[in-house]
């Protein structure tokens, strides 16, 4: 009986690596194969799923529409215009002298997201920024003459009460950062390309 | 309660032998499913939620045949449904209000579970599957609300998807991935439509598991004690099938009243203005069933250490639902039903009042005094789960439990007078 038992055990050992007959060597080799097969399976699954996930990222045509040219010549001092870039509003304001002075005079230590006014403009009179509140994406008020401009004379987001100053910097409210500056360049004195 | 499924019909016998579907139904919702004999009307809301889902799916499928998921046509296609499609107004109003009623019955269903401790062992997974269902419902409702492409559709979508930008490092990339562009736009509308159509079926899958887990130990009951034998139960059919049908009749009266006499009462008028990506409405509010969470989101106006106010708000908002997952381990009291928990019984209603208060705050602007009320309400909401329930588990002295359901219900007297005021009522 003992002999038969051992024979069966050895036969089973061919498939069961836990049998002592095969020792530690067989165990690690089987474990290695499991890991290798499992790892390859995981890599293959990720590789197969990635195109599906990536298909939800912006498509080539969406990316291709990513630049807009704007003629600034009709805009006068103290006037604001709103243009669309990549589906979002872009605020363009020709700032007045007092607004520029106010923006430049602010003590950086008072700012939640410290940034000098000079770092936010290419020409001091032209403030060009995304009209998208950095809190949750609403469009702040302040572009039209009758709009509320908030406590710092710039823009005010009605959704959750963020106040921006004349440089579009966050001063009060839940928004974490200043209004974003899009990439733009002056292709002529009064002509810009955004994007 | 005779044995298994019995019939003399040769066709049914032929089918049953090959596919035992009749005995399956009989065990699921028939004479072979023993149910506590003392279930009150608060136990009707599960079947009502099922009815609401069926109504939503039936109307949704025919609406999908008329709707166009494109930013240039979506709003007009919905107006066409309202004006030109045969019974389009009716079908859309049923679908619109069906969503609200689904949330009404599910919220009552959840609160019933909280009052009667239905989430306690051995029904924790049943409860957790319910929370999964609630989350799926919310995602489905949110995406459905975007489809008419009104002002509130657009700005609600923009604000809520922007929540994900609060995630450190990858937040912005995730939002662009969700949108499929740089703003809520046509790709966003298309994917929301696809997912809005898909998710109810995922919901059905979750419900199958929910009911599967339910059948493992059967329904909880108002006394919160387990059934101890046949004397404590009655067969589901005909007793609870007829009771559920009665409840559905009452539900449909209220539902029809809303659909026919006040179809827009639970909606926002500004959603009948087409979406304009350049103009944010003065006052953005979500649908009523999201208001308490919205109040929690907005109640955080200060940074804590390196965490921004925005991120904390988002964490608390999702946390207010996710905390339900661990409710069975926060409430350690061995007694399920609040009938026998004198303090929990009262604090439960304080919690309900707190949720309603948060809802009211969520409907108002985020400024004082609403802001402070919302902050207090948020603190209390989490305190209820994280402080009050664990403390009550050890400090509260429950009243003695009855020996059995049948003793309590049929014989009267004993320890549960309240439950036995009308003997035989449920028998």
Structure overview:
The complex is a heterodimer of chains A (195) and B (427). Chain A has two domains: 2-55; 63-194, 3-layer Sandwich (Rieske Iron-sulfur Protein). Helices cover 30% and strands 22% of the residues of chain A. Chain A has helices at residues 2-13, 23-54, 60-64, 97-105; strands at residues 68-71, 80-85, 88-94, 126-130, 153-157, 162-165, 170-172, 184-188, 191-194. Chain A has a three-stranded antiparallel sheet, with no helix packed on it. The mean pLDDT of chain A is 84. By secondary structure, chain B is mostly helical. Chain B has 16 helices and two strands. Chain B has helices at residues 10-18, 21-29, 45-64, 74-83, 88-115, 124-146, 151-162, 171-179, 186-217, 236-261, 291-299, 309-322, 327-330, 342-362, 370-395, 405-411, and strands at 34-36, 233-235. Chain B has a two-stranded antiparallel ribbon. The model of chain B is unreliable at 413-427 (pLDDT under 50). At the A-B interface, loops of A face α7, α8 and α12 of B.
Mean pLDDT across all residues of chain B, rounded?
Answer: 92
Biggest interface, and residues per chain? A-B, 29 and 35 residues
Strand content of chain A: 15-25%
Strand tally of chain A is 9
CATH superfamily of the largest domain in chain B: Cytochrome Bc1 Complex, Chain C
Biggest β-sheet: strands ordered side by side in the sheet of chain A: 1-9-8
Individual helix count of chain A: 4
Could you give a short description of this structure?
The complex is a heterodimer of chains A (195) and B (427). Chain A is an alpha+beta fold and 195 residues long.
What secondary-structure arrangement, pairings included, does this model have?
The complex is a heterodimer of chains A (195) and B (427).
Chain A: H1 2-13, H2 23-54, H3 60-64, E1 68-71, E2 80-85, E3 88-94, H4 97-105, E4 126-130, E5 153-157, E6 162-165, E7 170-172, E8 184-188, E9 191-194
Antiparallel strand pairs in A: 1-9, 2-3, 3-4, 5-6, 6-7, 8-9
Chain B: H1 10-18, H2 21-29, E1 34-36, H3 45-64, H4 74-83, H5 88-115, H6 124-146, H7 151-162, H8 171-179, H9 186-217, E2 233-235, H10 236-261, H11 291-299, H12 309-322, H13 327-330, H14 342-362, H15 370-395, H16 405-411
Antiparallel strand pairs in B: 1-2
Helix pairs in contact in B: 3-5, 3-10, 4-5, 5-6, 5-10, 6-7, 6-9, 11-12, 11-14, 11-15, 14-15
């Amino acid at each position: 009986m003992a002999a038969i038992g051992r024979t069966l055990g050895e036969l089973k050992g061919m498939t069961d690596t836990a049998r002592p007959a095969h020792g530690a060597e067989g165990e690690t080799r089987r474990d290695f194969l499991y890991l290798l097969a499992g790892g390859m399976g995981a890599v293959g699954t990720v590789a197969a799923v990635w195109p599906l996930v990536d298909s939800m990222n912006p498509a080539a045509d969406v990316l291709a529409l990513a630049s807009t040219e704007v003629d600034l010549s009709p805009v006068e001092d103290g006037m604001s215009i709103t243009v669309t870039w990549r589906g979002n509003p872009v605020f363009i304001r020709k700032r007045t002298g007092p607004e520029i002075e106010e923006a430049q005079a602010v003590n950086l230590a008072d700012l939640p997201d410290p940034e000098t006014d000079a770092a936010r403009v290419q020409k001091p009179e032209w403030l060009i920024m995304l009209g998208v509140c950095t809190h949750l994406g609403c469009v702040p008020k302040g572009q039209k003459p009758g709009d509320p401009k908030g406590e710092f004379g710039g823009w005010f987001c009605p959704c959750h009460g963020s106040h921006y100053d004349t440089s579009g910097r966050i001063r009060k409210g839940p928004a974490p950062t200043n209004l974003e500056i899009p990439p733009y360049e002056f292709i002529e004195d009064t002509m810009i390309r955004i994007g | 309660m005779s044995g298994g499924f019995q019939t003399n019909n040769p066709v049914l016998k032929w089918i049953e032998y090959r596919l035992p579907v009749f005995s399956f139904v009989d065990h699921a919702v028939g004479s072979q499913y023993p149910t506590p004999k003392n279930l009150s009307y608060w136990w009707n809301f599960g079947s009502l939620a099922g009815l609401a889902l069926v109504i939503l799916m039936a109307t949704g499928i025919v609406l999908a045949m008329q709707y166009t998921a494109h930013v240039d046509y979506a709003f007009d296609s919905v107006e066409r449904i309202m004006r030109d499609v045969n019974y389009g107004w009716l079908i859309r109003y049923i679908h619109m209000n069906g969503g609200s009623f689904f949330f009404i019955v599910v919220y009552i269903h959840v609160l019933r579970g909280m009052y009667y401790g239905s989430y306690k062992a051995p029904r924790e997974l049943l409860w957790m599957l319910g929370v999964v269902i609630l989350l799926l419902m919310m995602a489905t409702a949110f995406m459905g609300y975007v489809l008419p492409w009104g002002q509130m559709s657009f700005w609600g979508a923009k604000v809520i998807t922007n929540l994900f930008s609060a995630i450190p490092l990858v937040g912005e990339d995730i939002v662009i991935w969700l949108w499929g562009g740089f703003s809520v736009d046509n790709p966003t509308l298309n994917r929301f439509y696809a997912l809005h159509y898909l998710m109810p079926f995922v919901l059905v899958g979750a419900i199958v598991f929910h009911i599967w887990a339910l059948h493992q130990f059967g329904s909880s009951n108002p006394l919160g004690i387990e059934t101890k034998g046949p004397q404590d139960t009655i067969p589901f059919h005909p007793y609870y099938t007829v009771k559920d049908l009665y409840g559905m009749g009452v539900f449909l009266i209220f539902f029809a009243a809303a659909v026919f006499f006040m179809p827009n009462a639970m909606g926002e008028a500004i959603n009948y203005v087409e979406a304009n990506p350049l103009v944010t409405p003065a006052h953005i509010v979500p649908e009523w069933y999201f208001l308490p969470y919205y109040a929690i989101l907005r109640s955080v106006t200060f940074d804590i250490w390196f965490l921004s106010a925005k991120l904390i708000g988002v964490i608390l908002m999702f946390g207010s639902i996710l905390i339900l997952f661990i409710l069975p381990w926060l409430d350690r009291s061995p007694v399920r039903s609040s009938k026998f928990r004198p303090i929990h019984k009262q604090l439960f209603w304080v919690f309900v009042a707190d949720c309603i208060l948060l809802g009211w705050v969520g409907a108002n602007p985020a400024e004082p005094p609403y802001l402070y009320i919302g902050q207090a309400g948020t603190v209390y909401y989490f305190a209820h789960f994280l402080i009050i329930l664990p403390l009550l588990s050890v400090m509260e002295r429950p009243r003695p439990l009855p020996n059995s359901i049948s003793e309590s219900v049929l014989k009267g007297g004993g320890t549960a007078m309240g439950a036995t005021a009308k003997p035989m009522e449920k028998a």
